[in-house]
Amino acid sequence: MDEVLTTREMAEADRLAMAGGASGPALMDRAGAAVADAVCRRRPAGARAMVVCGPGNNGGDGFVAARVLAARGYRVELFLLGSRDALKGDAAQAAARWSGAARPLTEAQPAAADVVVDALFGAGLARDLDGEALAAVERINASGTPVVAVDVPSGLDGDTGRVRGAAVRASETVTFFRLKPGHLLYPGRRLCGPVRVADIGIPESVLEAIRPQTRRNGPSVFGDAFRAPDEEGHKYGRGHALVVSGGVEATGAPRLAARCALRIGAGLVTVASPSDALAVHAAALTAVMVRRADTPADLAALLADRRRNAVALGPALGVGAETRERVATALRSGAHVVLDADALTSFEGEADALAGLVGERPERGVVVTPHTGEFARLCRGRADIGEAESKLAAARAAAAALGVVVVLKGPDTVVAAPDGRAAINANGTPWLGTAGSGDSLTGMTAGLLAQSVPAYEAACAAVWLHAEAGARIGPGLIAEDLSEALPAVLREYFAGQGA
Ligand SMILES: NC(=O)C1=CN([C@@H]2O[C@H](COP(=O)(O)OP(=O)(O)OC[C@H]3O[C@@H](n4cnc5c(N)ncnc54)[C@H](OP(=O)(O)O)[C@@H]3O)[C@@H](O)[C@H]2O)[C@@H](O)CC1
Ligand SMILES: [K+]
After folding, report:
1. Dist. CA 10 → ligand 2 center (Å)
2. Atom 13 in ligand 1: which residue has the minimum CA distance?
3. In this structure, what DSSP letter does residue 230 have?
4. What pairing do the DSSP bridges indicate for beta strands 3-4 and 214-216?
5. Three-state DSSP state, 3
6. What residues have CB less than 8 Å from 240, skipping those under 6 apart?
7. How the protein assembles, per its UniProt entry (predicted)?
8. If you write DSSP's letter for every residue of 336-388 in order, what string do you get?
9. Which atom number of ligand 1 is nearest to the Cα of residue 17?
10. Mind listing the pLDDT tens digit of every residue in the chain (499 residues)?
């Protein structure tokens, strides 16, 4: 159920279902009935339901919903953009079975209704809203009347999560078969309200042909790759993560990362520290070890021990040539690498230089974890990435260009792999936007890489577990809580696997 389909893939699912014997009107009947069910959960029979229909099949779903609601005793008024005669195909059939009037959309007064069904545009939205449609959406949003959106709120682009001119603010959205990217990517996610995925009779088997590349992030994405340690294992079997620290005034971030690397299951974790910060780290760390590393050559020496199989650089490391050199050292070692914050900003506008270093050892996993600002700096000058149509497309383009797994952070974090796979995260909480939260994510990623979880799955697991930990703490969350919340999160996660 975690596959996410683009509008094109959804049309393909529809086509394959029909090729397999499903009928278009039957699919539309189930879609419209699912929308009617949502209205019924929200308002009792007798309520005034206003259905606004567009000229395509989204409007067709609206006609079905109107018919079902009227049969269940709702007082239904239906308004149509365009003329009834102009409807085609399944929508025309659905309209023919609606015995009530279809009044001009300009007459729709949503403030007078108890609930609105928004069936103006769905997957077929082709341009920015204007004219009558725009005015109707503005009236709906101003009315304060609850809105059930059909497939997507009208005006929201289902592929990108972006608004085309204006979009309905829905109280809930009923979509069909699978989620679309626009349900998960902001601002779309906010405009949808809670999203219900209705089964309309499209068989699961169509996915074998479509092979969707996008998923909602969760254990279905990474569960096979991240399992509980086996009973006979020992700490050396769970890898050794190295976290590179900056100077004495910047030791908190690497310690947060190191503790998270250990909590998530790395067998050993070491902070590589410059001499001036050694004493601070030594006083503050117990299970995490400390080693001196003043220069990139010192880092190379530490990484020459191949048991140190994952390294994290970035948090509070400082921006500049020295950090670039450390990144190059890490990327030339045999270790898996996580790059965050200053390690990425040190390559501002030089994504190609970073890609060159990554390309020297393509067998090893590299994950970068920028927030939006760091991402924009890193990819400056790359129009193919900067002008991508969505956050999802941008992360994918960057992953392909850099040859790394990209974790593009935010309330709708996207994880993308160079091979095109991508996952959109949706279990977070705004409380995760706090100092040190990103450092913790970096550490979790390093800890998973140390356990030999492949880079894409490691990144997806880290993002999901980090969000899960944050959501559990909620209000008052500080970064120190994240590592401490992990044991309970992990216990449940492994229990869910039957481990
Ligand atoms: N696929 C499936 O499995 C199933 C799909 N189902 C349903 O079908 C929906 C997709 O239907 P769809 O393809 O007919 O597109 P839809 O969203 O109705 O819009 C197209 C119409 O709008 C028009 N139009 C576009 N933009 C406009 C604008 N800015 N301003 C004004 N007009 C604009 C466009 O006009 P044109 O661009 O041709 O001028 C065209 O007439 C999907 O969301 C779901 O609800 C279900 O029944 C279950 C099975
Ligand atoms: K809609």
Report:
1. 15
2. 124
3. P
4. antiparallel
5. strand
6. 266, 267, 268, 269, 270, 307, 308, 309, 310, 450
7. Homotetramer.
8. EEEE-HHHHHTTTT-HHHHHHHHHT-TTS-EEE---HHHHHHHTTT-HHHHT-
9. 3
10. 899 999 999 999 999 999 999 999 999 999 999 999 999 999 999 999 999 999 999 999 999 999 999 999 999 999 999 999 999 999 999 999 999 999 999 999 999 999 999 999 999 999 999 999 999 999 999 999 999 999 999 999 999 999 999 999 999 999 999 999 999 999 999 999 999 999 999 999 999 999 999 999 999 999 999 998 887 777 778 999 999 999 999 899 999 999 999 999 999 999 999 999 999 999 999 999 999 999 999 999 999 999 999 999 998 899 999 999 999 999 999 999 999 999 999 999 999 999 999 999 888 899 999 999 999 999 999 999 989 999 999 999 999 999 999 999 999 999 999 999 999 999 999 999 999 999 999 999 999 999 999 999 999 999 999 999 999 999 999 999 999 999 999 999 999 987 5
The structure tokens listed for 313 are 């650089």
Q: 124: Cβ below 6 Å to ligand 1?
A: yes
ipTM for this prediction: 0.98
Note residues around ion ligand 2 (Cβ under 5 angstroms). 118, 122, 149-150, 154
The backbone region for 143, taken as left when phi is positive above 0, alpha when psi lies in -120 to 50, beta otherwise, is alpha
Which domains can be identified in the chain, with CATH numbers?
Answer: 3-212 (3.40.50.10260), 219-496 (3.40.1190.20)
* Strand, coil or helix: 80: strand
Is ligand 1 within 6 A of the CB of residue 14?
A: yes
Distances (CA, A) of 499 to 226, 261, 472: 11, 21, 22
Provide the annotated binding site for AMP.
409-413, 438
| CB contact at 8 A, 119 and 54 | yes
**Is 64 close to ligand 1, i.e. is its CB under 6 Å away?**
no
Q: What is the DSSP string of 174-213?
A: EEESSB-HHHHSTTHHHHH-SEEEE--S--TTHHHHH---
Tokens at 280, concatenated: 């601070």
pTM of the full structure: 0.97
Ligand 1 and 166: CB distance under 6 A? no
Mutating to test ligand 1, I would choose from 9, 105, 125, 130 the residue with most ligand atoms within 8 A of its C-beta, which is 125
Minimum-distance ligand to the CA of 65?
1
Q: Of how many residues is the chain composed?
A: 499
**Positive or negative: CA dihedral 171, 173, 179, 181:** negative
Nearest-ligand number for the alpha carbon of 129: 1
